[in-house]
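Supplementary notes for students who missed Thursday's class. We covered one full example, reproduced here. Read the sequence, then the structure, then the short commentary at the end.
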Amino acid sequence: MNLFLSILISTIFAAPNLQVHWNTQEKKELLVSALGEENFIKDCISQGLDAEYRFHVQLCRRRSMWYDGCKDTFRFKQSLRYDPISQKYLISGDWLDDKIPPQSTSTDTLAEASKSLATIDSV
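Structure (token representation):
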């Protein structure tokens, strides 16, 4: 019970640092990363829990002397779990509210898996 409560409290108050960078020279795609939670992810996975990030992204264009032009909000969910049978870390990513099924990948190292968990490529 104490483990669950401590994880719940940590999750509620854990606010990772977000970084947004242009992914291409043409400035048509963004790379969004949540950094600074590697130890928290490692603790969750080592206790047998899944780790999950949910991103709510809204792209806006600033305009002078007019309202900012914003697109709809996009929601993206990334989850990470460890499969003890295959001894791999499974990462699943899904753009919510679309009809495309989730994309899944796997990796051998926790460092690579946590980096993949905390990154949305090509927004």
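Commentary. DSSP finds three helices and seven strands in the chain. The mean pLDDT is 72. If anything here is unclear, bring it to office hours.
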